[in-house]
Amino acid sequence: MHIAARFTTPRVLQSPRRPPEPRPLVPRARKMSAPPKVGFLGLGIMGAQMAARLVRSGAQVTVWNRSLAKTEPLKALGALVASTPREVTTSCDLVFAMLADPQAAMKVATEGPDAAVAGIAARPPTAAPITYVDCSTVDAATGEFVGNAVRAAMVAGAADPDKGGFLAAPVSGGWRDCRDGTLLFLCGGSRAAYDAACVPHGLDAMGHKRWLLGPNPGDAARAKLMLQVMMGNMVGSLAEMMALSKASGLDERAVLDVLSNSAMGNPLCTAKGKLMMEMKYEPNFQVYLQQKDLRLALQLADDLGVPAPISAAANAQYVRARQMCLANADFAAVRMAYEAEVPPDKESETGELN
Ligand code: NAP
User: Fold this and answer.
1) Residues whose CB falls within 8 Å of the CB of residue 79, separated by 6 or more in sequence, listed in order
2) Number of domains making up the chain
3) Most ligand 1 atoms within 8 A of CB, residue of 49, 98, 225, 294 to mutate
4) End of a domain among 162, 192, 215?
């Protein structure tokens, strides 16, 4: 069971504003050659929109998700639905995964007879070389582990592992960027895998900038965690400012407006500050994911012997938010972890706690 399943959905999340279901398919132009076969594993908030972009690129897309219901909107767009990851990697030449965390990425790719690598090993020697692209945010060890498993499966299946192969490609951007094809891809892996993924029915359909950061999956994983340190700390710090503003009797809207117009202003703080003020925590990027990213970054800092006290403090607030049943809320809800510590009324200021 994934970690978020242990928490119930709080009332503040029960508003209907969710990412929209992928838009209906625009009829494709008739093509002479067979469309490329692309697979997609994991149809969460991000994956559903990314897979829809691939369908619209003209590829023949086969999707798989642990919970079958999430495949329905993609099926309506024209995607095929597979019942296992193995089916996807057996039948598709370019396969993307967008899964919650290291456990999910490893399980889907490598565990058991239905895993993605089982399908790679079962591909006939005459099949085109496969490229497996994991876009999930994971730690370096997970990226290396999955990369090695993909390579071993290619060798077992008599494919040339130097054609295609494994690419780690975590993303920066939210579901709107998935929908609009404006994601940023941070890539780590071989040049062959990168080139095989950077095609109009691949990364180029879903993103508008990409970097090959190094020859190993871990190069991308570590770079992505650097961004998550900034994001988690920034939004944690914003939550602290908002809670303090309120406790000081200040007009939060005015403080946020000043911040947005100052040298410290940025689109993330303006957007998340508004959500915090309005207490609108429908998920875009969930608390459980931001806390996972800080946990992985802290593990990296620990391994390197680099102090990361700010990230450690912010992480504690995201853990607290999870304890408050906010795991599936947008990570702006970390503000509620601060609110929980603010004395509720004036009596507390005089020491008369009830
Ligand atoms: P999400 O909506 O929670 O979706 C998670 C996906 O992982 C679902 O398809 C889920 O399947 C699957 N999953 C979880 N545990 C699994 C398991 N044990 N076995 C098989 N499948 C499992 O998350 P998301 O927002 O799409 O994020 C996906 C990844 O992108 C994460 O690594 C996240 O850190 C990263 N990311 C997210 C954003 C964002 O704005 N949301 C931005 C950048 C990067 P079910 O549907 O069956 O639960």
Assistant:
1) 40, 51, 55, 61, 62, 63, 71
2) 2
3) 98
4) 215
Q: How far is the CA of 40 from the centre of ligand 1 (A)?
A: 13
Tell me what the pLDDT averaged over the chain comes to: 90
31 is catalytic: no
Residue 9 lies in a domain: no
**Domain range holding 129?**
35-215
- Please pick, among 31, 75, 209, 224, the residue that the annotation labels catalytic: 224
Whole-angstrom Cα distance, residue 230 to residue 228?
5
CATH of the domain at 63: 3.40.50.720
Task: Determine the pLDDT at residue 203.
Answer: 98
Confidence of residue 69 (pLDDT cuts 50, 70, 90): very high
Identify which of 67, 108, 289 to mutate to test ligand 1's pocket (most ligand atoms within 8 A of the CB).
Answer: 289
**pLDDT in the model for residue 23:** 58
Radius of gyration of the chain (CA): 22
pLDDT surpasses 70 at 28:
no
Q: Give burial (CB, 10 Å; 0-12/13-18/19+) of 1.
A: exposed
Q: pLDDT band at 160, cuts 50/70/90? A: confident
